Amino acid sequence: MSTAVTIRDVLETSLDIAWVPVGCFPRNDLPVRIRIIVRQIPTELTVADVTVADSGNYTQSGLQPNTVYSLQLIVVYRGNIGNNGTSVTLLTASPNPTITNFFSTPIASTVLWSHLQPDFIVSYNVSWSYVGPCSGPGVPSDTHQVLHGSRRNFTLTGLRPNSQYLVTLVAMNNIGRTESTASINTRFSGIFFACDSDIVM
Question: Is 89 exposed, middle or buried (0-12, 13-18, 19+ CB in 10 A)?
């Protein structure tokens, strides 16, 4: 007896899985439990070997970034272990990138970053959101851009001069994302434009 595993989220140091609860073992109507084994690849070091309730979800923490793990889920009933169960292999996310510089011109702003372990990075998601000082109609909406994993800089355009923006950077590998995002709250200095609410018609 086995059940399929769904990977819900993979971060730098943790993973979240789900499965369809088995319920009771058909032949004796006894509730089952789920044994979960997590091993690091290729060392085969056992990171976790736990038996949990058949709740349908489990979170494993304490993992290493940018590391391959195998996860085995086995149905257990009346103290007996079923078959080899379901196995999946996954890669945890890379460490967080670091924003190293941010500079502005009257027409655009450029953000630069570095990454300690870039080998498995597939893409970066850079987003910027307007912080102030204006509010109400006409305030710029949040914007984001997906970039190739080899990029280490990006120029933000369409910014409102003399305004504050929150710039956020997230790195993605082929299965996960950085656990926390690099971000900077910066002022874009340029030619001043009044807030829409300050304009008297």
Answer: exposed
